[in-house]
Amino acid sequence: MHRYLKTIKITDIEEVAMDISFNLMKLTGLAIDTLSKLSKATIRVHDPERIPKAPVVFVVNHFTRMETFFLPNVIYKITGKYLYSLAHYSFFTGSFGRFMEKVGAVSTKDPMRDVKFIGALLRGDMDCIIFPEGQMIKDKRFIERGKYMVYNSGIRRPPHTGAANIALHAQFYREELKSCQIRNACDELNTLMAHFGIHDNELSHVVDQETYIVPVNITYFPIRAHRNIINKIASTFVKSLPERIEEELEVEGTMLVEGVDIDINFGNPIAISPYLKSYLAKRKIKSKNLYLQPQDLQNDVVLRKIAIDIMYRYMHDIYTMTTINHDHIFSYLLTRATNKIKEGDFKTKAYCAIAALKKLELPSCHSALKLKQGYLLTDDPHGRYNDFIDAAKSEGLITVNNGIIYKNKQKFSRAYEFHTIRKDNIVEVLKNEIEPLRNLTRRLQILYWTPMVCVRRSIAQSFYQRDVQIFENDYKHYFKQGETKPKYIGMPFFKKRSFARAGVVLVHGYMAAPAEMRELADFLYNQGYTVYCARLRGHGTSPEDLATRSYDEWYESVNRGYIVVKNLVKKVFICGFSTGAGLALLHAANKKDALCGAVAISAPYKLKNIASGLAPAVDTWNKFLSFLKIKKIGRLDFIPNHPDHPDINYLKNPVSGIHQMETLMDVVEKRLNDIYIPVLIMQGAGDTTVDPRGAFELFMKIPSEKKECTMVHSKSHGITRGDVGIVVARRVGAFLHDYRV
Q1: Element (H, E) at 572
Q2: N or C of the chain: less Cβ packing under 10 Å?
Q3: Residue 327: pLDDT band by 50, 70, 90 thresholds?
Q4: Cross-strand bridge partners of residue 530
Q5: Whole-angstrom Cα distance, residue 425 to residue 140?
Q6: Is residue 276 a contact partner of residue 211, using CB atoms and an 8 Å limit?
């Protein structure tokens, strides 16, 4: 790569500098900023403080055309320094070529290339940016037989050592200048200064500097490829676009139009001077030979070996900084899978993979992976997963039928063209991208071969322990003497039956606790079901706890119980009482066929208490007073409660809780049309809290063809205990029996 260091004068250096227009660079940066705002791409910079205030060669992985334009602008905003960037000679023709030169781009065939780079690094007036792979790596295949290799003209070759040579030679000449100063070799010193355009007043600054290489990784998420407005416009003006350009417009155009997260990770700087501490390197630096001809340094065996060592170090750093995201995990597991895999097993392994990933503490993970990943286990809609599966289906890579993912064997076994692989099989590309992360891929391999029965048992145990721990913490924090019931009342309980094929998630009512469902749980357990009774957050502790909770937290409480049961049985039902009934219906709408049936007992669809309708307004008023920091005057936080079961229920009712319950039921009402699984609606005919007519309205609005509505003779709201509780349990048991086979 380096064939053209030649002896030149300071006037030649100044002519080189005149090729650059800093005003045009600034205008170009403003244009890029404007385009960035118009696009849906989000650039996120990580660890910019790692960039030293010294001459730097930035080495960057190369996947799209975009980074060659936006990255210099990003770095300029961080460092305040413009950059030389190395670009393929094919860009330097006509007016566009002249524009490239004016904004700091240097052709790979420019005879002054190394002089520009090394001179700028010595003086410290401009940094450099180089893509060491030498070209775009569309297939992201970096590793072959344990070595770094990139595709080029049908063969695999090692990455270029050009960036290492530029930095190494710059530091070599810096050390040589320092040696001339120490030896008082004025003629040699003046020759070197003239060669690189260094003025007398700059010398002390030049010799005191250190040359660094800063590895940079750019990761895009998500990467999708399909026709978009950009390549449609391009096709209008150019009737027959080359296949290579068509692919780039589909991939990169989709990123800009539909949105992509661009994570830019700056690695730890690599100081170059330590690589020149060997005896042979020092002897070269101190010799009277100035090595002004390019072959003098490029053909030196010692420096060539050092350059290779530096190259391997920064390539390792670049690739291990990949920002891991959901698509990486999904892609790796899908490529490793056999011809088919159950969707539930696939999502479960993805969840475990993300959990293992967090323990590895890799340099960079996408922010979405830092959120809770439980939705992969709950069979609720998961945006990242659904988006990946839909993309894989649209590309013909997989089909999904009856909860089973079938791989298209031909798509995964064929060799793809380098310039079409991003749109033909992005799954393979994403799998390739994380291959250098050996710690991660080893964990994924171990996970993939771990029997699912072991994985499921581990997850069930983990979530049960988590649920119990959450209750223990809440109970301790919100315990209130005289109000908080004994711990066994609020503790979530789990009745596991060995070899059971069906299980039930029970959900208690508002202001109650799991103990409310104990009798029904015992009955169903004796009928052969594994039973888990979830505790809704804010319940089983104190009213003050409930006042802080939202219906979303209640929903998540049920999800933890669902995960436990789902991982131990083949068929799962959900049964809720009162507010728990509303939650059961919402889970039925979200989980669809993942549930075999749902039971809603005394759902609070229509409340009899007129005062409950005031709860939203009162809750809003209370929050307004809190905003004004008014603690007591004019507030109504709680109202008295006269429950059917005072040994379980709270004796005062938080207004905010009533508001959350009504908000939940508003959401449930909007989702009733999505319920197609078997449903049993049960209601006490003499309910004093819930209007029984609401049960018939629920029944009529649910489109399921397998639905039943049963009225139970009762003069109270709580119908899951006592004599009437036996009637309810038998009816629930009969319904579950009909659909458990």
Answers
A1: strand 571-577
A2: C
A3: very high
A4: 503
A5: 12
A6: no
Q: What angle do CA 636, 642, 648 make, to 5 degrees?
A: 105
C-alpha 105/C-alpha 83 separation (Å) is 8
Angle between helices 551-566 and 452-478 (to 10 degrees): 150
In this model, does residue 3 exceed pLDDT 50?
A: no
Report residue 606 as tokens: 């229509």
Would you state the structure tokens that stand for residue 528, as one six-digit string? Answer: 């052969």
Single-letter residue type at 323: T
DSSP per-residue string spanning 410-449: HHHHSPPPTTTHHHH-HHHHHHHHTTT-HHHHHHHHHHHH
User: Can you point out the beta strands (E) in 232-299?
Assistant: 260-266, 270-271
- Write out the DSSP string of 111-177: TTHHHHHHHHHHHTS-EEEE-TTSS--TT---EETTEE-EEETTEEEPPP-HHHHHHHHHHHHHHHH
| Residue 200 pLDDT | 86
Structure tokens at 471: 């209750």
Query: Regarding beta strands 56-60 and 127-130, do their DSSP bridges make them parallel or antiparallel, or are they unpaired?
Result: parallel
Give the pLDDT of residue 6. 40
The Cα 363–Cα 245 span in angstroms is 33
Task: Write the burial class of residue 542 (CB in 10 Å: 0-12 exposed, 13-18 middle, 19+ buried).
Answer: buried
Assign 199 a pLDDT band (cuts: 50, 70, 90).
confident
H or E element: which one contains 519? helix 518-526
Give the pair of three-digit tokens for residue 585: 């219906």
- The runs of H, that is alpha helices, within 259-300 are 279-286, 294-298
Nearest to 715 by CA among 737, 682, 683: 683
Other CB atoms within 10 Å distance of the CB of residue 570:
11
In this structure, how many other beta carbons lie within 10 angstroms of the beta carbon of residue 396?
A: 12
* pLDDT band at 526; cut points 50, 70, 90: very high
Contact 459, 348 (CB under 8 A): yes
Sign of CA dihedral 202, 207, 208, 211: positive
Burial of 647 (0-12, 13-18, 19+ CB in 10 A): exposed
Instruction: Say whether 218 sits in a helix, a strand or coil.
Output: strand
Q: What is the mean pLDDT of the chain?
A: 87
Read off φ and ψ for residue 374, nearest 5 degrees: -60, -25
In 3D space, the residue among 651, 652, 666, 662 whose CA is nearest the CA of residue 620 turns out to be 662
Q: pTM, whole model, 2 decimals?
A: 0.85
Residue in the structure block whose two tokens are 């960039």? 51
DSSP state of 51: S
Nearest CA to 20 among 99, 127, 129, 138? Answer: 99
Check residue 621 and give its pLDDT: 41
3-class DSSP string for 3-25: CCCCCCCHHHHHHHHHCCCHHHH
